[in-house]
Every structure is written in structure tokens, then in C-alpha cells.
């Protein structure tokens, strides 16, 4: 069987790409290692830049997002218990972000793709790529014990950090950059009312905390924890107490406790692989880069990659113009590094690294104090938070 584009991975990158190609009449098959329930159950971040919202609207998968998404025009930064407001809307000429869980967005994208007759092969095992340097690439996989082969024109590896796509690129062509942070985020989902009308990013002597939300009745909160911590170390009580402490007495009294229905610890890392293409293979989203979650750029970066890649594939299939494909990596990576910079900067300013009593620690604190005291500083933060254009 021949298909113009084989997409590996049905996370947000792969699903969005498949939709963007479909609305221009270009067929694709998505090969996904996990089952649908697993993909739809993964808990991820929940802040959409307007560029991402725009892509959802463009493909017409926006009904539930429009109805349930919450627009936010600012964030709070709390330092040692004192809250400061960053009025992003005023600082960026009216821009906002939308609170809508990636989990919900993924469910919407899968349902719509299947409703339009889209081909998503769940539980596709042993996916392997052949001939990426030739003009006849192909992808093999096993489904229900039977081996299949798809020949194609292009392969999009939207298969996340642990995927097979990046590993198929010749090692000597790939340069990787990495920073691992000495802490993780313990995150909980709970049935409770949000602490405030907007997100609170808190920097405190005991570490970072974040109060986020999914709706008026569900909150998503995080606290910075040492990398070695296990989920068993964190009872619900310990979590709520720690969150309150890091918010300081004023905001602590606003924390509504509720039933915790999900709790997990995620490590923080920055990672970039260059280039994002080789021959007929193109990487998008977490397959090519990871950001720490401070600033919620992961999903939004996947969306901008896929925007560039879909435009390039459309130009090739509709106008036989290959320039976009040749320039994809360069174009995508320029925006990737800006989001990497912002996520690293937010992470450094707001977390405790254990070296506060050193030159680096003092400079990080001065940076935070400066940003919060200067319109230029706040504008820089706001402009990046709402998302750079693509
Ligand atoms: N074969 C088939 N599918 C695979 C393989 C493989 N060898 N390896 C991984 N996958 C699938 C995963 O099961 C997953 O469903 O690829 C998908 C990758 O999805 P994500 O990890 O969600 O990555 P991406 O779509 O790029 O989404 C961007 O933004 O907020 C961040 O990390 C967060 O998921 C988020 C990401
Ligand atoms: C979330 O709601 O999960 C979230 C929000 C903002 C972040 C990270 C995660 O920076």
C-alpha cells in the first residue's frame, strides 16, 4: 500500500499534522504504539497559545475548545509569599492564552480524525523506517501479530522523545543539546476550585510551586521536588501543606483542598536535536525537542513545528515546490531555540537550585527582582508567554 505521508505517533503533533494535510486533500496514516485509551488518558499541560488555538480553528476541531476553554490575559508571579501581576494582555497589545487541557485537545483531535475517516493504527508495534535517504521510503510495523509495510513519499516522526524517528537518523548527522535540572515537578489533579482567577507561579525559599487549573471545578497544582523523590513520599496532606507554605500566608488561605484524582512526578529537562530533517524524514514536536514545563511551551512548540511542516508538505504536493521542505528544519529550529531559551529562563528564575548562596544564585534572584520591577522586563516575559509568532 502507498500513502503520501506516514506519520509516526498520535500525540498532538501527529494528530494536528494529519488534520492539516487532510483539509488540503493529502492523505496520511498515523502509526501509534499505544492504544487509544492510553493516548487519551495521558495528563499533560494545559495552556494554549493563540497560534495553537488558531490551528485547531483552521482544521475545524474547535467546538468543545471554544465552549470549555478559558481565556487568560495574565499570570501571577508570587515571590516569597507576595503576589505580582503580569498583565499580558496590556503588555502585548491585547494577546491572551487559553486554558484547555492537552488531554482534552488530544481526545478532540482523535475523535475528529476518525469521524473524517482518518486512518490511525493504534497498537502498531516494532515500527521501523526504511530508505529515508532514497525517494522511496517505507515504514514497517506489526499489528495483531501480522507484519505490514507502507510505502510513502515522506515520513513525519511525531513520536516523542523516546520515538524511533530520531534514532533512525544517522548519528553523525545529528547534534543534540541537553540540560537536566536537579529537580522534578510533583503534579496533582484535584476536584477543587482554582486558587485565583489566573495561574500563580510561585518562587519560595522551599522551592517553586504552580497553581493551575483545568476548569472552574478542577485544579492542576505542582510543587518542585528533588529528583530522587518518589510518589509514595508525598501523601495528599503533605502536598497541600507544602503548596500552602510556598504560596505564603495570604494565598495559602485561598487554597481549596479537594479529592486528588491524579498524582505524578515528572523530571525537568531541556533537549534539542538538530537538524529536524534528513532525506525524506521530518521530526516534529517532542521527537526533536523537550522543554521544562515552566511556561507551558511543549505543546505549543509542537504546534508551530507542525504548522511549518504542513505548509511545506502542502507546497510540495499541491505545487510541486520543495523549497519549504528544504527549509523546514532551519525555520522550525529558530523558533524552537527561542522557546528553549524562555523555558530555561523561567525555570532558572523561579526554582531553587540549592546554590542560592553563590554568585549564580544571587544573579538569578536579581533577574527575578528586575523583571518584576520593570515594564521592559514584564513585557519580555509576557511576549514570550503568549507565544512568539509563527
Ligand atoms: N511507534 C509508534 N508510536 C510511537 C513510538 C513508536 N516507536 N514511539 C512513541 N510513539 C508515540 C507515543 O506513544 C505517543 O503517543 O508517539 C506519540 C508521541 O506523542 P507526544 O509524546 O505527546 O509528543 P508530541 O505529539 O510531539 O506532543 C508534544 O508537548 O506538552 C508537551 O510533552 C508534551 O506531549 C506533549 C508534547
Ligand atoms: C498545567 O496546567 O498543567 C500547566 C500550566 C502552566 C505551566 C505548566 C503546566 O507552565
UniProtKB/TrEMBL annotation:
One Gene Ontology term of the molecular function aspect: 4-hydroxybenzoate 3-monooxygenase activity
Gene Ontology annotations of biological process type: benzoate catabolic process
Keyword Flavoprotein attributed: yes
Membrane-crossing residue ranges in chain numbering: none
Tagged with keyword Glycoprotein: no
Record Pfam families: FAD_binding_3 (PF01494)
Record keywords: FAD, Flavoprotein, Monooxygenase, Oxidoreductase
Record domain FAD-binding: where: 3-343
Listed InterPro entries: FAD-bd, FAD/NAD-bd_sf, HB_mOase, RIFMO-like
Source domain of life: Bacteria
Descriptive protein name: 4-hydroxybenzoate 3-monooxygenase
Organism in which the protein naturally occurs: Thalassospira marina
Organism classification: Bacteria, Pseudomonadati, Pseudomonadota, Alphaproteobacteria, Rhodospirillales
This protein's encoding gene: pobA
Amino acid at each position: 500500500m502507498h500513502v503520501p505521508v506516514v506519520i509516526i505517533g498520535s500525540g498532538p503533533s501527529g494528530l494536528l499534522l494529519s488534520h492539516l494535510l487532510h483539509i488540503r486533500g493529502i492523505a496520511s496514516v498515523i502509526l501509534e504504539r499505544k492504544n487509544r485509551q492510553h493516548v487519551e488518558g495521558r495528563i499533560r499541560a494545559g495552556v494554549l497559545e493563540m497560534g495553537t488555538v488558531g490551528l485547531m480553528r483552521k482544521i475545524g476541531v474547535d467546538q468543545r475548545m471554544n465552549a470549555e476553554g478559558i481565556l487568560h490575559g495574565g499570570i501571577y508571579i508570587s515571590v516569597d509569599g507576595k503576589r505580582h501581576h503580569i498583565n499580558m494582555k496590556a503588555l502585548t497589545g491585547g494577546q491572551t492564552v487559553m486554558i484547555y487541557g492537552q488531554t482534552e485537545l488530544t481526545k478532540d483531535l482523535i475523535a475528529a480524525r476518525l469521524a473524517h475517516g482518518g486512518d490511525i493504527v493504534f497498537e502498531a508495534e516494532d515500527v521501523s523506517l526504511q530508505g529515508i535517504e532514497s525517494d522511496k521510503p517505507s515504514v514497517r510495523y506489526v499489528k495483531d501479530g501480522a507484519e505490514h509495510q507502507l510505502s510513502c513519499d515522506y515520513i513525519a516522526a511525531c513520536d516523542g522523545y523516546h520515538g524511533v524517528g530520531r534514532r533512525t537518523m544517522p548519528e553523525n548527522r545529528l547534534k543534540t543539546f541537553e540540560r537536566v535540572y536537579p529537580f522534578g515537578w510533583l503534579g496533582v489533579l484535584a476536584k477543587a476550585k482554582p486558587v485565583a482567577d489566573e495561574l500563580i507561579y510561585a518562587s519560595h525559599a522551599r522551592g517553586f510551586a504552580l497553581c493551575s487549573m483545568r476548569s472552574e471545578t478542577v485544579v492542576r497544582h505542582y510543587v518542585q521536588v528533588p529528583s530522587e523523590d518518589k510518589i509514595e513520599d508525598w501523601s495528599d496532606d503533605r502536598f497541600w501543606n507544602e503548596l500552602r507554605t510556598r504560596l505564603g500566608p495570604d494565598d495559602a488561605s485561598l487554597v481549596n483542598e479537594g479529592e486528588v484524582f491524579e498524582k505524578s512526578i515528572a523530571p525537568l529537562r531541556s533537549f534539542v536535536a538538530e537538524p529536524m530533517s534528513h532525506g525524506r524524514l521530518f521530526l516534529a514536536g517532542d521527537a526533536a525537542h523537550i522543554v521544562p514545563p515552566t511556561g507551558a511551551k511543549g505543546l505549543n512548540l509542537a504546534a508551530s513545528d507542525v504548522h511549518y511542516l504542513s505548509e511545506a508538505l502542502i507546497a510540495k504536493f499541491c505545487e510541486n515546490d520543495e523549497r519549504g521542505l528544504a527549509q523546514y528544519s532551519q525555520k522550525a529550529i529558530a523558533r524552537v531555540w527561542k522557546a528553549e531559551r524562555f523555558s530555561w529562563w523561567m525555570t532558572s528564575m523561579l526554582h531553587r537550585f540549592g546554590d542560592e548562596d553563590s554568585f549564580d544564585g544571587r544573579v538569578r534572584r536579581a533577574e527575578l527582582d528586575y523583571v518584576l520591577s520593570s515594564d521592559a522586563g514584564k513585557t519580555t516575559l509576557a511576549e514570550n508567554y503568549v507565544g512568539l509568532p509563527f
